[in-house]
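Session log. Operator J.P. requested a structure for one protein chain; no other inputs attached. Running the standard single-chain path with token output.
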Amino acid sequence: MASYNTTFSGGDEDPISESGVWTSGPGAFTAMRIVSGEAQPSATGLDAAAFLNSPSIGSNQYVECTAGASFASGGFIYLILRTQSSTDGDSYTVSILQDGTCGFYLATDTGSLTWTQIGATLALGARSPGDVFKLTVEGPILSLYLNGVYQTSRIHHTRTSGQPGIGGYGTSTTVSGATTSATAGDLALTGPIIAGVVENLRTGTTDPWTWSHTNGTTAPKGVLVAIMHGTTATDHVLTVTYGGVSMTRVQRNTDTATEPGAAEWWFLGSSVPTGTQTVSVDLATATTDDLHGVSITLEATTNLEVVDVDGLTNTNAANPSVTLQYGGRACRSFSALYSGLTAITSLAAGTGCVAISTSELAGNFTSQAFMQAVGGTSDFAIGVTAVADDVAYAAVAIGEVIIGGASTSPGWFSNRGGWW
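Structure written below.
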């Protein structure tokens, strides 16, 4: 895995180069420079950037930087991923203002920069020199960390490759967006890799219910589909197919009291068709219950299988969580939540987890899908932070099929047709 780390201690230079490692001022961005051990914009009042020219970094990548002493009022630090080239500043950029105002942006370079915000603005609180900011991207999922603590994620599908970089913006009178160190490189991943995420909200009576899965379709080894709904706990779903290939329902949990609802997972771990495919959900009736679907494509070295499942049924609970057993295998966990709370703004991803859906069910209840931020080999508690309310919570752990070996713990083995 390739990476580069620097403390900008090799002497002042304008533009920044460090012996050709950086390309400064890609496209419509102006240049970055090094002054007294800080990387900072070369000019005031302009968007500046530099991206890693060498080594070449894969599509799943990260950048991390430490705020310098010149990070002051009115200054921005930019974390940049998937920059296109020296003549094209197209990228994903997270801007962090010294007062803690933070935004995710799709930067589009047409000779000048257009900033399209991705999701809501985040308030990090006033920031200081020494703060460490990190941005990662895996497939379509951008995740931000502050001083090693996960903050939030956004899902976006436009930029699929490019190089990581750093940048900044100062006021019209001072260069105040500065960093004292930077690290960038390939994102270390364990277990299945997220290739694409698509969600769909059914608000009519269509049967079958279908949507197109349009991203992360080059070479998927597995597919997960979460289905969540409120109003009733009725089992609406008869079958699910992906590109015409049948999927298996591996977990379903319901809440039948007070505010009924359900959450379930369907899975396909082999013979996954490539290219854009249709997710088709055959329903028992043309129900008027709104249905929330999330499809996820996964990449891996081999075919994939379910390693463990768990869930919560008929529970009025705060902070719903279950621990999935990995048995030492490299896995990743996913969960689907139906909640009696009014909106997803009342929900937050649990420790080590990331929210991967944003749609809202109509009514006085909500739903959301989550995943383990970084896969691993240790058992994992996948959970949601929320006050007590009605809950139907379904979770699944996915790992690669063991070839020429044996599992170290019981689990669901799709290649054996059930639990072993």
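Operator note: Residues 406-417 have pLDDT under 50 and may be disordered.
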